[in-house]
Structure formats: structure tokens, C-alpha cells
Amino acid sequence: MATQEPDRFDRVDWDEISRSRWFDPSINGIGVLATALPLLLVALYDWLVLDERTPTLDPVGLGWDVGTVDYLFLFTLSLFAFYIVLPLFQNPRRTRYYWREFRRNRPAVVSLGWLGVVFVGGVIGPFFVSAPEQSILTGYQPPVFLSIDESYVSTCVGEVVAGRCQGTWQHPLGTTAGGKDVFAGIVHGMTISMQIGFITTTIVASIGITFGTVSAYAGGWVDEVMMRFVDVVLSFPTLLMFLLVLYIYGAGLGMFILVFSAFAWGGTARYVRSKSLSIAEAEFIKANRISGASTYRVVRRHVAPNAASSIITQLTLLVPGFLLAEAQLAFLGLGDSAVPSWGQLISAGRSDLSFAPWIVLAPGIVLFLTILAFNFLGDALLDALNPEAEAENA
């Protein structure tokens, strides 16, 4: 009587097991491709067919003029959806474990809620809140429940009580000297912040992970040359490069993202290299090599997934630096005044602090809370996704 031969280690279809337990890379890749192709077609239609003055989505009645940064933002959102959000839904058991560990950090849970508000406001807010427009007659309108001396206001939108202009819900957070609504500026600033966070982090991750992994597995003189190049990138004054680009091409959000992405990946490359070298010495990696697995397969199937948790945490902690850099440059007058970022809003009210502090305080508090939330989130993700790091710090 014939008996079924038990599966041996070298005969097990590990690809099938990996897909069943985590996610199928082909499905995620197809999803990203299905999103990228329509974006590419719309971009080609925008650049080759439509006139420069015609908004991209004007033919369908939306009147939204999609720019290059918007296309990149939508593409990075698809990457986030298919490679981070979707795998969490595909593996609910692991997701429950991560959430159970994450919610132990109460400030991080509150931070996640705040970042959710910023994300939703940045993605769909501009469709419901009009962009802030210049209106000199409505300058220095105070926020709700506050008032300002009538002499500072050309035309008071609210009531005038005892010579003071009262705030109204028409401008809940007041207006700037030019009459731009502060609340609308904050909402549209959420979009700018999300674009900076998603696009810059995606570019930094792509370059840093690739560079660090190749350097770790190439070894020898290749590793030495690549790491010395990383030293050059880390030593290069990013502000000086940004000023040079600003002088040649002019200010713009796209230029900011390009320059800071080009010089911010060095730390990620070093981190990925060290993490890859430590994982490469693990016993299961040696077992895969002995079984005949190629270097590409070992990196793609084992090194990258095992280093992903630490890399995600490290990238999360980079976002506050990008947001703060944009705000600092805008405050110094080195940004694009046409970009409704929080930094531009803060810069617009720096000379009016004595009598109109809300112009600086409102976006400043939102920026502070967002940066603080990212820091709390990064610490909590480190504990949830990489418990070994928590054990080492204990």
C-alpha cells in the first residue's frame, strides 16, 4: 500500500505560505498599477490636450487643477493603501496584536486620532472649504468669542460693542491682515503637510532602503564606496542647496520636496544597512542560503519583511523634521507665498502679534500638535512593531 511521502523543507512552497499568512505581492502590485495607469492617463491628458489655464477636472465639473505634486500625492496614497493598509486587513490576527500593543500607549492613540483628522482634512477638506482669498476690507477679523479694537478693522463683519469688533462664525479663527480666512488656511495647510509627509517619505524610503540593502549585501569595496557617498550626502548643507535651487528655478512646493528628499535619505540608508547586516547573521537566513535561495530571494522574502517594522518607525520620525523645515523656511520668507502652508500662515502674522496673535497662534498650535503626534506615534510603533527594541530599552 502506497503512503504519501511527507513534505520536506526543500519541497514546501514557501511562496504560497507567505501569501496566505501575509499578502500576495502580485495583488498589491496590480492594485498600485491599476491606480497609477489612470493617474498617468489623466496627467498626459492634462499636459498634452488641455490649455494651461483650463483646470484639469473642469470637463467633469469639478474645476480642480491637478498639479505635479497632486499626482505624486495620489500615487503615494495608493502605495500606502496597498502596501500598508491592505496587508493589515488581510491579516487580522497580526493587526489585532499590533493594535493591542499600540493602544497601551494612550498619548499615541490620541495622536493617531489627531493625525486622522489632519489626514481627512487634508484629503477632502479643500473640496468643502474654499481656498483663502485676499480681501483687504475684512482684514484682522477676530476669532469667535474674541474682539479687537475697531480702529484695526476696515469693515467689521460682526457686531461692534463698546468700540470693539466682535468675532463671528463666518471667520471662526479670524482673518489675516489681507483678509484671508485663518481656518481655510489651516485646512488647506493640512493638504500641504500631508503632501510633504507622504511624498518626501516615499522618496526617502525608496532611495534609502535600496541603497542600504545593496550596500549591506554587496560588501567589500562597493559597500565602502557607497557608505562614503552617504557621508557626503549627510554632510552636504541642504539649506544651501535649497537656496541655490530657489535662485535658479524659484520657490515651490515641488522644489522643496525634491531638494529635501535628495539629501534626507542618508540616515535611512545607514539604518537599513545596519539592520540588514544584523538580520543577515540570523540562523533562518543561513538556513535559506544553505537550501539554495538566491540573494535576491533572501532580501525580498526575509530581510526586507523583518526589517520593515523598524524602517516604518524610523520613517515616521522623519516626517516632523520635514514639516518643521518647511515652516522655518516659510517663516524666513524662503518659501512660495502662493502655497497655503502653515508656515506661510505663521509668517503672515509675525508682525501682528501685539494685536492679532491668532494669526500665528492658530496655525502654530496645529503645527505643534501635528509634530508632537508624529513623535508619539513613532515611539508607539517602535514598541508595537518591534518588541525587541522595547526589551532592550527596559
UniProtKB/TrEMBL annotation:
InterPro entries: BP-dependent_transpt_permease, MetI-like, MetI-like_sf, OppC_N. Pfam families: BPD_transp_1, OppC_N. It comes from Halorubrum rutilum. Belongs to the binding-protein-dependent transport system permease family. PROSITE patterns: ABC_TM1 (PS50928). CDD domains: TM_PBP2. One of its GO terms (cellular component) is plasma membrane. It is found in: Cell membrane. This is ABC transporter permease. The chain crosses the membrane at residues 27-48, 68-89, 109-129, 196-217, 355-377. Residues 190-378 form the ABC transmembrane type-1 domain. It is a multi-pass membrane protein. It comes from the Archaea. Its main location: membrane. Keywords: Cell membrane, Membrane, Transmembrane, Transmembrane helix, Transport.
